[in-house]
Design goal:
The protein has 341 residues and is mostly helical. 72% of the residues lie in helices and 1% in strands.
Amino acid sequence: MHSYPMESNTINTQQFNDKLASFRALIDEHITDSYSGARPATLYDPIEYIFSAGGKRLRPILTMLACESIGGDPEQAAGCGAALEILHNFTLVHDDIMDRSPLRRGRETVHVKWDEASAILSGDVMMGIAYRLLINEIKDSPRGMEIMSRFTQGLIDVCEGQAHDLEFQQKSIVSMEEYLTMIEMKTARLIELSAVIGGLYANATQLQVTALNTFSYHLGIAFQVQDDVLDLLSENKEFGKLTGQDLIEGKKSYFIVRANEVIKEGPDAEFINTYINNKGISKEEIPLAIDIFKRHGIIEDAIHAVQSHIGAAQSALSMLPENDGTRGLEVIAQKMAVRTT
């Protein structure tokens, strides 16, 4: 295990960034080793393409930091984290097909670069690779069956969340409660799973597992609402997808759900109703949508929701030991609050 000297109550930014860089390198090594040299190329080339795009590796980093927060060796948990990252990317490949998304991380999506059949099959094998890797990593763990059970339920929950998201496309009205349930399952669940598996790998107590679960649940909700904000306000070069893509696709994002609740009459209400009826708007109408959301305080409301969930996530960390792992989780939450990509 490498040593990462840090001050007692604060983290040196450069040291922490170096630490995360070493974590990412180890995670990517596990990912690459999981499919390296496999054939046929038609099946595995799309997988190589997906992971060559890089990425923040948020989920496996959470696994490693959560393990460290309980007193475990974070490098030993990198394999479990890599399995979660592969599972996460499997869901993205299939989501992109369903959403007809042209871009992912600034590059053509797999079904666009290849075709839908190739994307479906490559996604399927990624799920198998993720399970194979996880089984190999936890076969000697006293919490192995618990980890496997949670991993499996997490996959089911993500699929159910995606089903809710697809159902929303056919519904004219979606409540904020329904929206939050959907993002809890579709987005927050894998983030929760990542932290909890890291804790279980280090043999966390039930109280510690609950703390990690609470922390990562709120982090996951904040992540998705922030994702909706970035989709609307971030430049294409930064975010790696078209600005306002969710609105073009007709998604019931945080903004549409909230707008439907607070805008009851007038031209703005008509605009929202037209959006719902037409299942989206044109690229040219994005500035008008942003103006409506700003005037009714909906963007401000979304940013406040992000900050509120980040605060709740940070509060949960008080139940964990004071160490570099826990402080690392705190920094991840802080970064989430101000992320631009």
